[in-house]
Amino acid sequence: MGQPERPAVTRKIIHIDMDAFYASVEQRDSPELRGRPVAVGGSSARGVVAAASYEARRYGVRSAMPSVTATRKCPELVFVRPRFDVYKAVSRQIREIFAEYSDLVEPLSLDEAYLDVTANRQQLPSATATAEAIRARILAETGLTASAGISYNKFLAKLASDQNKPNGQCVITPAQGEAFVAGLEVGRFHGIGPRTAEKLNRFGIHTGADLRAKDAEWLRRHFGKSGAWYHAIARGIDDRPVTPDRPRKSSGSETTYFEDLATAEAVENGVRAMADEVWGWCERTRAAARTVTVKVKYADFQQITRSRTLPATIDSQAMLHAVSVDLVRTIFPLVKSVRLLGVTLSNFEDEQSAAQAQLAFVL
Q1: The pTM is what?
Q2: Which of 53, 75, 106, 282 could be joined to 38 by an S-S link, Cβ 3.0–4.6 Å?
Q3: Is residue 3 part of a domain?
Q4: How far apart are CA 36 and CA 54, in angstroms?
């Protein structure tokens, strides 16, 4: 298999990342929170921080941190319950701004996206100027700040957006790419999680320069298919295009409850509610999937999943309810209360494949 074909021209990629998005929205909408350490999430003994303002981060408060730990680090911390409907509405505003500057926008989440501005719609002279204009528009229209990374590929643009946060931007040119990567710790690389970073460290690989010193065969032998990716990014190479509307591998919904669910009835109702949210997405996107996964996290943070793959795609909300509830009933009788439930669909088929599968099923 040959090397990936390089783009004919050097791409201009921007990664836009909103600054402390959820917490910043709350501070925008409640002036009394401005300048104060804010955590979005539950304040109870079993709560978890979903997002933290920069004032809170100075005390070491981070997302996914138990609320009791966050309060211990920052006794003045103010907890605010999340308002996901508001965050989604603001995210739609931001994406409308993106669309004015590029036809190639790849959202990663509510608060970040890649834009390919090689041929930007506003005919601005540079990617740097485009990023500045986008950030100014976001601030003017939403009252929120964003940071930007500008580079010739997605990997470096995402790294760059973190360099001058909050409310800043950073440019990594083709001449700077390899040297920039060389000086970074591998744990900061997008796509290298804590476990992989630990494994790399055990081999004496702590920085991008250390990673670059290993040849492709050594990396493949120790890291499998990921070895080729590590070999490329150590050299500042990433040929992935910005792909709007990329196919989803899964879509799901989950909720952490402010009060633990202690009965089978409450758990079943919770699963149905999560299934309703996922089905709503399926109807909007006309997506069809065959695999259902139910996720359960108990009050003691033990987590389990149950999955089932069907011979044909799920074609109704009632069918999704039935499969989801049937899966969660495998944990009954409840031996401990439940703090989180989730339902996820995967194994998607496109409309044509789904129609063919349904026809075969009928015949």
Answers
A1: 0.70
A2: 53
A3: no
A4: 9
Q: How far apart are CA 248 and CA 278, in angstroms?
A: 13
Contact in structure between 345 and 250 (CB atoms under 8 Å): yes
Contact 131, 150 (CB under 8 A): yes
> Which amino acid is it at 154?
K
Is 29 part of any known ligand binding site? no
pLDDT above 60 (res 8): no
**Domain extent for 151:** 8-173
Judge whether 186 and 205 are in contact, CB under 8 Å: yes
Do the annotations mark residue 111 as ligand-binding?
yes
Q: Could you give the CA distance from residue 64 to residue 73 in angstroms, rounded to a whole number?
A: 14
Question: Are 61 and 122 contained in the same domain?
Answer: yes
Residues 163 and 185 in one domain: no
Classify residue 6 by its DSSP letter.
Answer: P
CATH of the domain at 12: 3.30.70.270
- Pair 205, 352 in one domain: no
> pLDDT tens-digit profile of 314-346?
988 889 999 999 999 999 999 999 999 999 999
CB 136 within 8 A of CB 127: no
**What's the CA gap between 50 and 165, in Å, rounded?**
19
Could you give the number of structural domains in the chain? 3
Region 102-129 average pLDDT: 92
Do 260 and 326 fall into the same domain?
A: yes
Does 112 qualify as catalytic in the annotation?
A: yes
Q: Catalytic one among 32, 112, 254, 351?
A: 112
Residues 291 and 204 reside in one and the same domain: no
